[in-house]
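Bug #77: duplicate submission created two jobs. Keeping one. Sequence:
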Amino acid sequence: MPAFLDLLRDRLSSLLPSELKPNELRHLLSPRRHPLLLCQRRATLIVNRVRLFAFLFAVLTPLWSLIDLMVFEPRLWAALAGFRMMACLAFTCLLLFYRPSGNLLDAYRAIAILFAIPTIFYIASHTLLGSYQLAQFSAVVGAGYAFLPFVLMAGLTIFPLTLVESLVLASLLLLAQALAGYLSWATLNWPSFAGAFWLLILIAGVASLAGMSQLAFMFALVRQAIRDPLTGVFSRGSGEEILRLQWDSAQRKNGALALAFIDLDHFKTINDNHGHEAGDQVLREAARRLVAALRASDSLLRWGGEEFLLIMPDTDMQQARQALERIVGQGLGQRPDGAALTASIGLAERCCDQVADYRDLLELADKRMYCAKTGGRNRLCAVEPEALEQATFVLGA
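Kept job's structure:
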């Protein structure tokens, strides 16, 4: 049995982008613990596609009234036209007033509203049509209303969703279909209803796979775009976006946010004496050790050359100092000559330093890093240079 499961996993993995690492496959199942930038960009993409979907429905929904006018009696047509105009107004409001915020909860809300509008329209129109005796061409057009759940289920394929997200949305559409069947219980054609329900389940499965495939490609592309190719940590460009998002979050919660500039000591001599390949290896090893010691909420950036920036949300000054002492105390690796690699660190924290902008916090951490370098290196500076209250870390082997 384990061999069969391993084979199944390998076959499923082969259907996904080759750039996706095996330990990243879990991100396709649930939205928990997704990288911050992936959440932000995925939320923006979902809302933009919701607005595109809303635009199409806002245009096409009222146009179908022309078909209804030709085949239905005036009273039925007027009722359906009223439903269509209300749906069109709701789609238009969604298009005009909903803007991407980069927040995944807002994206969930947008997609829920998008699917709620036609679902309510479907239940209302299905119930209304069931109360009329339709014949010939009007019956054919009336039967066309039954295809709306299939259109909605197929519409899930345009969104980059995890398996859990797809199943939740698909389940809601299936419940709506079941509710429509319950409301027309007396006239329900059970074989036809059961076949349609089974087809909806099959489309839900295809839509889930399509959403996961989109998310996998997006995950791979975002990772390639935001990571430093040498060390694998976040690049400076993406790091500035992460810092801004974390700053906004800290301000909303009035919480702590610590920044640490980490500059590897005497790194230029490694390149000069041992070559750039040796220097690259030292950088990779230092980054690997730093990442291994971080919390899931922390973000490590390669700021440039041998400089790294560590972003620690919900971490006050005292906690940040203790964390850095633990992290750096475990060692950053070795220089090519066998000596321990050390670092000069500047630390700043939003609440303690009472700064008003993330750029000021960044500048303060950078200033204190240079204070640590001029003060003898292999140390942390967490106060103004005038106070010169520094803590020296003794690195392990």
